[in-house]
Amino acid sequence: MAKTGTFADSLFKGVLTVFAATIILVVVAMIAMMFWNSLPTIREFGLGFLVGSDWQPASDVYGALPFIYGTIVSSVIALILAVPVSLGIAIFLVEQAPKSIASPIAFMVELLAAIPSVVYGLWGIFVLAPFIRNYLGPILQNYLGWLPLFQGRLTGIGMLTGGVIMAIMVTPIITAVVRDVLEVVPNTQRDAALALGATKWETTLIVLENASSGIAGAVVLGLGRALGETMAVTMVIGNAPQISASLFEPAYTIASVLAANFAEATDRLYLSALIEMGLVLFLVTFVVNAAAKVLVMGVAKGTNAARQA
Amino acid sequence: MTMLTAMCAIFAITILVIILAYIAVRGVSAINIEFLIDTPKPVGEGGGIGNAILGSALMTLLATAIGLPIGIGAGVYLAEFGDNWFGNTVRFLADTLIGVPSIIVGIFVYTIVVLPMSRQSGFAGALSLAIIMIPIVARTTEEMIRLVPKSMREGALALGAPQWRVTWNIVMPAAASGIATGAMLSIARISGETAPLLFTALNSRFYNYFFDQPMASLTVQIYNYATGPFEIEHQMAWAATLILVGLILFINIVVRFLTKKKY
Question: What is the pLDDT of residue A297?
Fold first, then answer.
């Protein structure tokens, strides 16, 4: 009896281990295959690939800088807009709103994350872009037009629109993580602050301070999502490989050049250049996500320890 | 300050309502039965998304058939045996894989399936979706199984049940509804994916039942219609979006309703 049990046990555990190992295999194979398939451009251009600003597939000149620039700038716009709003929503839901209101609001914010990227893109083309062209853009040019950021021709399609649509998409993700982080801050801290005569808002500030590394983790996680955001951005950012100071000008991101060009890239070097950019994006988002995880875990672990003490 | 934070929440909800309202109004006006069963036609001759709906359904089905067992298996491993370096590595990689852009998964599958086969296929699309699904299912399954009280395991072990029976007949049934909701959410997630299908499944203008051929999907069709030059295409994009978002919201609301009872 005991012997059959142990055999069946090791078989069961063995099968499960294989399933779990699949995840490791996928990640390792991803890095290996993408590296292997980008060897032609790595050999041809070396590090120059990352700093070159010319992108002319027709004459086999590949520089990824405009895409790296577009990816970073659009993500920064997204975070500048999304972080304050996400923090506000999370504080409202955890610290201020009664539970009967908080729970349906939280669900609706989560629904924003359930809407597919391509749908945001569709909405971006036909609703957000005209809105920026006709209303938001002219206002920005009126008041901040002296900045190089807001000069140039307003088409509604460009870096700013890409950043705004990304902001909408990462808001629910940042909000969810900040909520989780605020919820693990022990209530004793809130009680202690209130007992010392702090106002509700001062108490919230203390809670935020204690959760700060977790909030940083949430922001980094949002950054990771923004860097890799593909369809919606491809549809509204204008897809032009240029580096321009103006946020109204069309731009390009790594993810969107992949989405827009990969299917028709048959030339060996062209394909290799695209895959190398994919590899760069993969490694960057991988590191960013790992950093976010470490930051969020720090808070969660700290409070667990505090609870047990 | 409550005013300010409340306004943030209202702002987010307003955007949700505006997006859903546009989809509902512009989608409903373009939708009809022919649209739902027809294949795409040259501009001006009508056409529909029947083959795209079928393609999405087939690829989601195959992706689920591949991804769900592996994901659940990995999740069970993590919860029951995963407190060691191997488990920690899997957990860490699963979490980071969840955050990796889905288009990267598309590139990976392109290099391992499309290049060797030298053509795009429904199988390549389904495999991409499965890879996206596995880490999500694994992590939700792990969480659900960890919620099962230890006393249930100890009770079964004390009655002489071997470990695998404890996991298979006691722990997994107890966590089944949680695992199922996690699976439903992951299906909702992959049915909205576009980027990994663009160059793996590509697209097709015809009804296609075979996984070794390029396959149409609802999401790629929306992308093509939305970025096309003609107003009639834009209308079809909104109508197709109504179907897609309707399905995804339906799954999310059902899951919400099912889980609300428990807590």
Answer: 82
Question: How is residue A125 annotated by DSSP?
Answer: I
Q: Determine, yes or no, domain membership for A52.
A: no
Of B253, B241, B255, B243, nearest to B19 by C-alpha is: B241
User: B237 to chain A: which residues are within 8 Å by CB?
Assistant: 122
- What is the number of residues in chain A? 309
CB within 8 Å of chain B, chain A residues 63-82: none
The CATH number of the domain holding residue A121 is 1.10.3720.10
pLDDT tens sequence across B213-251: 999 999 999 999 999 999 999 999 999 999 999 999 999
Q: How many CB atoms lie within 10 A of CB A39?
A: 12
B223 close to A (CB below 8 A): yes
Residue with the two structure tokens 């993969």: A282
pLDDT at B204 over 70: yes
- What's the confidence (pLDDT) of residue A29? 97
| pLDDT, tens digit (0-9, with 9 covering 90-100), for A130-146 | 999 999 999 999 899 88
| pLDDT tens profile A61-80 | 999 999 999 999 999 999 99
As a whole number of angstroms, the distance between CA A260 and CA A272 comes to: 15
Domains in chain B: ranges and CATH:
47-219 (1.10.3720.10)
- What average pLDDT does the segment A188-197 reach? 93
Whether residue B73 and residue A15 make contact (CB cut-off 8 A), yes or no, is yes
Count the domains in chain A. Answer: 1
Tell me what the mean pLDDT of segment A228-254 comes to: 94
Could you tell me if B102 and B195 are in contact, meaning their C-beta atoms sit under 8 angstroms apart? yes
| Separation CA B110–CA B199 (nearest Å) | 7
Burial class (CB in 10 A: 0-12, 13-18, 19+), B95: middle
Contact call for B222 and A275, based on CB within 8 A: no
What is the residue range of A251's domain? Answer: 66-308
